Predict the structure.
Amino acid sequence: MRHKWMAACLLGIAIAAAGCSGSGSGTEITESGDLIITESAVTEKAKFIPVTVEGVDLEVIAVKAPDGTIRTAFNTCQVCYDSGRGYYVQEDKQLVCQNCGNRFTMDKVEKTAGGCNPFPIFDSNKTVEDGKIKISAEFLQEAKVIFENWKA
């Protein structure tokens, strides 16, 4: 039984890695399931990074804010997430919730919590070292509940 569980976990990590890595993508999933984002690959155009955790599809937004900092959030609205359509697309220099239509500027990504905006991934939930952002497998695991009804 233990071997089946390990095989399923490894397959899940492999599928997630296939969805996140590739030439020029600037993202990868490590063997332990951590998401790695290369800062130099992030621009003013939001990067929507798919990650699969135990069969649940998540998405992380990484974007360079007007002040030059890299901001991260989960691509689901803190109010509309349960609707299944509470995800964002970029229109010009704003993110727009596909459920309620709320518009959200890039300088507020990761800085604003609560209300109708993307779930922030704060500094305390990630590490930044040598030009790479790491979001741990454990934190991704905790976040999967907000994506269980996601229909993006």
